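Researcher: I need the complex structure. Ligand is adenosine-5'-triphosphate. Inputs:
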Amino acid sequence: MSAPVLELRNIHVVHKTRSGSLFKPGKLHAVNDVSVSLRRGHTLGIVGESGCGKSTLARVMVGLQAPTSGDVLFKERSILKRDAATREEFGRTISVIFQDPATALNRRMTVENILLDPLEVHRIGNAASRRSRVRELLNLVGLPQSAADVVPGQMSGGQRQRVAIARALALQPDIIVADEPTSALDVSVRAQILNLLDDLKSQFQLGLVFISHDIQTVRYVSDEIAVMNHGEIIERGPAEQIFDSPSNDYTRKLLGAAPSLL
Ligand SMILES: Nc1ncnc2c1ncn2[C@@H]1O[C@H](COP(=O)(O)OP(=O)(O)OP(=O)(O)O)[C@@H](O)[C@H]1O
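Model: Output:
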């Protein structure tokens, strides 16, 4: 097995909430002592019901949320130490796709500009090579070249999610964290997006983190599954093992509540 690109060690995230008294805010333990390793060529599925802490964990993985305690190691270096070079490399190597491409993409920018943006920010290539990379990215995600000139508002949900995937691929990441990437889409296009992610994972040996409340969707793409409940990983193992012989009652409950595929 390849060395981990990213390791989360004993991550805790405690949110302050408004639910306490006026003078003493409450606390919510959104992620409770979670450790995971992410490797190239491997899909880790994270499943759990709404509010179990999946998105908070995803935000820690991609550096959008600092943990309350614990460490995030990128190629064995902590990203929490704010070393600029490590964080820059981390930003290029770990990409994220969110649930709703309608809000994740700037609706007023053309698709070409959306895809040029990360290349320009990270000063990759020159103007001509960036435009050629945009054409390549559209190809990779199955969009026609004419899509470069449209704005996301003119596209369907599935097409917009393809743009979000192309943007996530722009910097040739090692890891893509996909947080509920198919939940906002019509059922008819969900399988297409899952297959696209799976194909890209194989083609580029990507490490994929696939997060969903739907255990059947997670099963479709994952090598390994971690089940979350109340901020903790309560069971994890190879996808077949979780499905064929779950050891935890909560996992059995999730399986029982999910009769249909996708
Ligand atoms: N910034 C925040 N401040 C306070 N509480 C928060 C914050 N972000 C999340 N929470 C709370 O932390 C818990 C975990 O939320 P999180 O979004 O990580 O769960 P989730 O499993 O992704 O759920 P969903 O799929 O509904 O987003 C929830 O109870 C949520 O209300």
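Model: Summary of the prediction. The two ends are 30 Å apart (CA to CA).
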